[in-house]
Input
Amino acid sequence: MHKDSLEDCYKMSTTRFFIRRLPVSMLAIFSLALLIFGAGAAQAASLEKDFSSPPDTARPHVYWYWNNGHISREGITADLEGMKRAGIGGVMIFNVGGSFPKGPVRCATPEWRALVKHAVLEAARLGLEVNLNNSPGGWSGSGGPWITPELAMQKLTWSETRLSGGRKIQVRLARPPVTETYQPEYFDPPKPLGYYRDIAVLAFPTPPTEQPQTTSLQTALRLTASDPKFNVQLATDGKEETIASLTAAAGQPAWIQFEAAAPFPARTLHLDFSPGGAAQGGSLLASDDGSHWRKVRAFTSRNGMRITAPFEAAPARFWKVVFEAPGDMTIGVSEAQLSAAYRIEDWTGKAVFDMFGLDKPLPPPTSAKAPADSIIPRERIVNLTSSLKPDGTLAWDAPPGEWTVIRFGYTPTGQLTGTTAAYGGRPGGRQVQPGGARSALEIRARAVPRRHGHQPARAGDPPGQL
Ligand SMILES: [Ca+2]
Output
């Protein structure tokens, strides 16, 4: 639009012209005057009145924690009457467990439901609103005792079997590691679980670095450490729960060392740490004589749990892991292994098998650097799933060569929701995969009376499912 016609347009309306040219402060005064001397006078009076005596719709709501079954009719009434006196407008009932010892009323029992009903009716009497968190057990909207093992959150698990081909094979494949127990409630002893289902059986030619002649060299490595009290057995027994403590001498670095009788073609360093006992990082060094060292690579503990660090280096007789750690810190080594097999850097983190460190960036993919003899061509992978019998026996006419057979399955993670309030006489809460949430919501819906909030309850009201 042309400038002149734009001006004309403004002049067509005196008010608009006036307003457009007013400074902002003048506009504010003009608006305020309208508010005070017009209809705003009544509004101001109402605002003052509502401020001194707020309507129910403006009153605050609060969380109302029911601490692990410590609830009673008298307590509920006293709480609600106290909140009413304090000006509270409504509550959200939130059952929690956590570190509270169990109280007399267990969550989701008929007794508990009767108390929820009592709370809702008492709130209605007092003109308070009631909301319920969408799970009976605290932050456990995704799980509870109604979740059976097959609905629980699962993880992949597998076992490996090495065998020589060129013959008809009949072998029992080991059942992969399974979550055998879980602890359903805070103070309860563990209960059996042991749920497992097969997914697939795959076979592939065993890479040369993982064949017996190499793995036997790996097994023969001698492990020593800077700390004479370091328990080598605990660091090499294959169990995460057994831990070897490594304490540095004052002013000296802590280290462990692998020694071979002949140059060993190492390709991956594996370290597992105890919870809270991880080194911040460190370096891997190699030597031919145990005196003159060359640096192979550095590593850092991204998640404080585990390190899988591949590298390319010439075979050497001595391999030393030097840890970075504060001088007074004791490192807890669950497992330490130097392997001739190549593994992808931090593969357990990339597969989300590690609980921690997910907020930190993963190392870049290194598969492009993988040695050619460690790569398994897709076309060499044989699917043997249909040859697995229910008892775990595999019948296979195996082609010549060394083979690795992997039996994949799944088992519950064993993780529980928290802070789960105690449940009455049921197997206990398990976290679930999506789909189980519907069950949680159904349980919740059944607990809510059909009449609540400001609607006063009357004799003969439908009681819902309480
Ligand atoms: Ca161990």
User: Anything to note?
Assistant: The radius of gyration is 34 Å. Residues 1-24, 424-429, 432-441, 443-466 have pLDDT under 50 and may be disordered.
